[in-house]
């Protein structure tokens, strides 16, 4: 499918692996130039080499929670590539886990800093680019947890609920300027983040990783009807659509990619 983004410039955060990397790959295949960013310079370099397209892919490390690093990132992009047309905010962490009475203030603060305030700072820095020229796309990675909170992941759930509110609010403010804002809410995708969760679960339960995944699906995600982890390309395809000209009448929406995991309508 021709997404109509050939020649556009896209910035993808959290792009050294998982959904961010897969999204960058699809955008590149559709003819966009893509800037990968994440915190670890070595992992980022490996991700850029693995993705190919050396004339269209750029990579610069940055921490989305750090305002000064974001300013430097913006300056590098402006000087070497130009203004961005597309921003995909995929960076995030699982954050503090445990029941509410088991969590401390630091766990809450760290999770909200990365998963909510990081995206706020990122958008604040790059919003002038996205508003210029009459055409822009902004896509946030939210989560099923935003609308179906789990008792042992409340900081993450609250941060992702905030992302949905941020996305909807921005969509109302800037649509008439040509900037369309949407979010995508995956559930239990096969990424390094869920790998780490399942490895921890397998150790705690003293079972294999596959058994840990199956027990998690049975006990924690009973409405995820396909009974498997989703694949990054299944999420990235939806993100890429929302970044495209094909989504020219989609604004303020939240697309669930969750195999039915959210139990309500």
Descriptive overview:
The protein is α/β, with parallel strands linked by helices and 265 residues long. It has helices at 18-29, 41-51, 67-80, 105-131, 154-174, 192-205, 209-220, 232-242; strands spanning 9-13, 33-37, 57-59, 86-89, 136-141, 179-186, 254-257. The protein has one domain (9-187, 231-257): NAD(P)-binding Rossmann-like Domain (Rossmann fold). It has 8 helices and 7 strands, in the order E-H-E-H-E-H-E-H-E-H-E-H-H-H-E. It has a 7-stranded parallel sheet with strand order 3-2-1-4-5-6-7, sandwiched between helices. Strand 5, helix 5 and strand 6 form a beta-alpha-beta unit. Helix 1 (18-29) packs across helix 8 (232-242) and helix 6 crosses helix 7 (209-220). The longest helix is centred in the middle third of the chain and has 27 residues, at 105-131. The radius of gyration is 18 Å and the shape is globular.
Kindly list the characteristics that best describe this protein:
265 residues; alpha/beta; Rossmann fold; seven-stranded parallel β-sheet; 7 strands; globular
Low-confidence stretches: none
Which CATH class applies here?
Answer: Alpha Beta
Q: Give the spatial strand order of the biggest sheet.
A: 3-2-1-4-5-6-7
Q: From the 3D coordinates, which CATH architecture would you assign?
A: 3-Layer(aba) Sandwich
What structural category arises from helix and sheet content? Answer: alpha/beta
Average pLDDT, rounded to a whole number, is 96
Q: Portion of residues in helices?
A: 40-55%
Question: How would you describe the shape?
Answer: globular
Summed up, the domain count is 1
Number of E strands: 7
CATH superfamily: NAD(P)-binding Rossmann-like Domain
- Beta-strand portion reads 5-15%
Distance between the termini: 29 Å
Return Rg in Å. Answer: 18 Å
Q: Report the order of strands and helices.
A: EHEHEHEHEHEHHHE
| CATH level 3 topology | Rossmann fold
Number of helices: 8
Oligomer: single chain
What can be said about the biggest beta sheet?
A: 7 strands, parallel
């Amino acid at each position: 499918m021709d997404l109509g983004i050939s020649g556009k410039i896209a910035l993808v955060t959290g792009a050294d692996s998982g959904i961010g990397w897969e999204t960058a790959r699809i955008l590149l295949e559709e003819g966009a130039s893509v800037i990968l960013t994440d915190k670890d310079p070595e992992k980022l370099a490996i991700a850029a080499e693995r993705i190919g397209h050396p004339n269209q892919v750029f990579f610069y490390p940055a921490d989305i929670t750090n305002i000064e690093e974001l300013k430097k990132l913006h300056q590098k992009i402006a000087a070497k590539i130009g203004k961005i047309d597309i921003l995909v905010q995929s960076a995030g962490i699982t954050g503090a886990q445990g029941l509410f009475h088991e969590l401390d203030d630091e766990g809450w603060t760290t999770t909200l800093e990365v998963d909510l305030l990081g995206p706020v700072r990122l958008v604040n820095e790059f919003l002038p680019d996205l508003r210029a020229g009459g055409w822009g796309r902004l896509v946030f990675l939210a989560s099923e947890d935003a609308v179906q909170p789990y008792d042992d992941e409340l900081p993450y759930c609250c941060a992702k609920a905030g992302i949905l509110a941020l996305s909807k609010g921005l969509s109302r403010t800037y649509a008439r300027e040509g900037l369309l804002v949407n979010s995508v809410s995956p559930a239990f995708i096969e990424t390094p983040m869920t790998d780490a969760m399942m490895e921890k679960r397998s150790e705690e339960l003293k079972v294999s990783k596959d058994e840990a995944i199956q027990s998690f699906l049975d006990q924690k995600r009973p409405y995820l009807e396909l009974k498997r982890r989703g694949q990054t390309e299944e999420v990235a395809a939806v993100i890429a659509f929302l970044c495209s000209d094909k989504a020219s009448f989609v604004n303020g929406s939240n697309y669930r990619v969750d195999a039915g995991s959210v139990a309500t309508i």
